[in-house]
Amino acid sequence: MRSGLVTQEFKPFKSVAGSIVMIECTLASKQIRRGTGLIYELCQREGGTVFQAIVTNRHLAQDAKWTRIRFTSRKPNGEPDHENQVEITCTDFWQACIPHPDPKVDLCIYPLQRVLNKAEQEGTSIYIPSTELYRMPSAHELANIDAVEEVYMVGYPTSLQDSATGTPIYRKGITATDINFRYADRPQFLIDTGLFQCSSGSPVFMVVNKVSRVDDQYILEKQIRLVGIIGFVLIQSDEEVIKTLACDDLPIRQSNQTINHLGAVIHYSKLLDFEKMLA
Prior knowledge:
single chain; 6-stranded antiparallel barrel; 279 residues; Peptidase_S1_PA; mainly beta; Thrombin, subunit H; Trypsin-like peptidase domain-containing protein; 7-stranded antiparallel beta sheet
């Protein structure tokens, strides 16, 4: 029998949709911020504990009085129910958030268990997919990353979503600076894609193709890697390039400003700092 290449039927981007949540934070002043969160597992060590959290930007969660988080519902058989969404309102979101230890790194995490407990009290079921679908790049993969790579941002730009299924919006772009370099001497890199309000907290992925051999067949498996979290967007004014946060309460365009579709992505390695805190 001749060997051949078979593409695996698993679709990682379709599966990851349940891990992307819409976040709406209301301040005491009634000002509203909207953005995106990613369900992620930290402290994944053999024989150790697993800490599930919602990862987002600190500037989105800071000083929130009320926070609404929209999840995918779970069917009785454990499958995602994309036609139904579960909305959980939290009054402790900012108080329970754990900010990144470096105040210059615009990240925070919120314990997912607090949401799951609240959902159980309200008699609702939330679909939580396996985060093994989107791990960080390995050292080998990182060493082979080119200066320009295709990337995919997933979230809710300008609060858009599929109204029928509640699933997020996928946007394709490229890295504008090398992932392995520190842009402006910070743990971040630039991407070139459509970035608008409510992009705060959106995860950025890249695709890695793996080939394995089973009997006489070669299996091509498409995998995705989490390479970072959107931090801010860059705006071109008449005189200079300025940065602005990508959440809903901050106007990002005036008559003398132009969106240049460049955004800063916080490097995925900064999530590892939370593991040190939680160890």
